[in-house]
Amino acid sequence: KLGNxxxxxxxxxxxxxYFHTVMARFPEKPTEDQQEALRSYIFLFARLYxxxxxxxxxxxxxxxxxxQVSSRKSAAGWACFIHNxxxxxxxxxxxxxxxxxxxxxCGCAEDEKDEKx
Length: 117
Ligand code: FAD
What we know:
- The protein has helices spanning 5-24, 32-48, 52-64, 72-89, 109-113.
- It has a single domain (5-113), classed as Four Helix Bundle (Hemerythrin (Met), subunit A).
- The protein contains 5 helices and no strands.
- The model has no long low-confidence stretch (mean pLDDT 91).
- The longest helix has 20 residues, at 5-24.
- The chain is globular.
- Residues 8-9, 12-13, 15-16, 20, 49, 53-54, 57-58, 80, 83-84, 86-87, 90, 92, 95 line the site of flavin-adenine dinucleotide (FAD).
């Protein structure tokens, strides 16, 4: 467990940035295998998150709201929703999930051309 609140918040911001960027880059039409990969990733992410108290809370949220992995749109929307659950728990303002669009652009648009992987 990270002892200090600043470090915990910094880890949280970096992680959320990465987490939402993963969703923004998930295929629009994922194969079964890609869907299963994302689902497994999310459960392992929750288990291994370095702040133990956070990991415990997040696993409870996951049990209540299982990951949506059928498309990029559903994965990104689900991640936004679950982050809002954490925001609510921490009494932070709700993020407008209709604004997700270009917010998590990783600058990897070049990859998209050769992305029939
Ligand atoms: P953050 O919540 O870190 O968000 C960063 C930025 O993401 C925001 O500035 C905004 O631009 C954007 N954003 C905000 N909401 C959304 C959304 N719904 N969808 C998309 N983008 C959004 N801290 C604790 O004290 N206790 C916990 O139990 C805890 N659990 C956590 C569990 C996980 C899995 C993670 C990743 C973090 C957890 N944290 C927890 C940390 C906490 O969520 C914040 O990251 C931290 O408090 C810093 O908050 P912040 O206000 O800077 O914004």
